[in-house]
Amino acid sequence: LLNIVEYNTAEASLGSAITSPTITEVLLQVDVRLLQELPTVTTDIILKGTCEGIGCSNKFISGERKVRVLSVSGDCTLVLESITLRDGYASSGSGGGALFISNAATVRVLDSRISGSSAEKSGGGIHVSVSTLEVRSSIITGCRAEEFGGGLYSSGSTVVVESSTFQYSQAGRDGGGVYASYGTQLSLEAAAVTSNQAGTKGGGLGAFFSCVVYDTTTGIPTESNTKVSVAESEIKQNSGQTGAGIYVGEGSDLSVRDTTVIGSNAAGDGGGMAVAARASVSATSSVLQANMAWRGGAFAFLEDDGGAAELLQLELKENSAECGRDFFWTHQSEGAGLGPECTECVAADSYGATVRRDDVLGHDLGMVFRQGGLEAACGGTDVQALQVACAASEVNVTATLQVEDDAAGLFGSDGATFDRLTLIGDVGEEVTLLLTPDAE
Q: How many beta carbons lie within 10 A of that of residue 7, not counting itself?
């Protein structure tokens, strides 16, 4: 155990300790302000900032906005306990302003704080590559990356986050709070991803790209998707162009359970979540509330070839969009259908009434039209090509959506209203829905 108590020798003592083969634990009793980057950690060590006594607070290591705070590489384990890494800076297109983890290293961040750090490329707070990271009871706040992962950037790694917060971070491109990519396996439980911002995709959280792994014996390649699991968490007040709360990119799988996605704002598609081509999402027992977007206030399903979605027992309320208050999807392939059904989902319409969508239609008309005034979908949507499942009264047929009384010019016209839709079934049954523009 090395107990660092002297201010004037703190940096030198810490630098020597983290590279020593004989020191396994360092206790900081003073704050450390770095004049240069510390040596890379390559051996097992525990670094504690716990300070005992009345009026004492946990200690910090600061990069003074000039240098990275810590790097870890190779087959070793670093434990950060009750410590703050702050004001780190990774320059020259590199990543990990506060913490850079690579080459099969393991890092555990426990009851700690990472703040005010930045990177010219990725991982303003933390950059982890082909390694293992655990974040428990900690806060990552106020970090920025010029490109990807304001708070955290992960590539090909295993990341476990529990009872922790990612907040007030920014990415110039994707993943304002968290960016997971290239086969990363990311688990968030009892976490908060709050008030983060991305220039393009994934204001709070973004999952991107699969990776190909080659068997060392046979040489046979296997594709490994990026997998993100979110449970009992809150994704709140994030912003971005697409997928303000969560973005699920190509080659990625998302599982969401018992989670609230609330108050996020997308300038484009998917205020709550956006799901891209050849991505999959499973969302269960969760709430999507007060999210905003141009298309798809709660969900946007984009380029629907090869993707998959399972939506079960969701509560959708107070979401808003120019097109598809709760849901929006695109038709890129012929016969793609209406996209996913939302089973046993409950949504509050714009007048406050609560309706169970699957009691009336297998697919929510809110996917295409607003409730209440029933305004037209986005310009260019081919309403006649959409397929809906009709389960009204005693009729249960797969039907084609037709349009009548289209004097206002529904096709290619935003904000148009109409009086009647007709569902014509495969075997000739016809069900007419009379739609009125007012609440009654």
A: 12
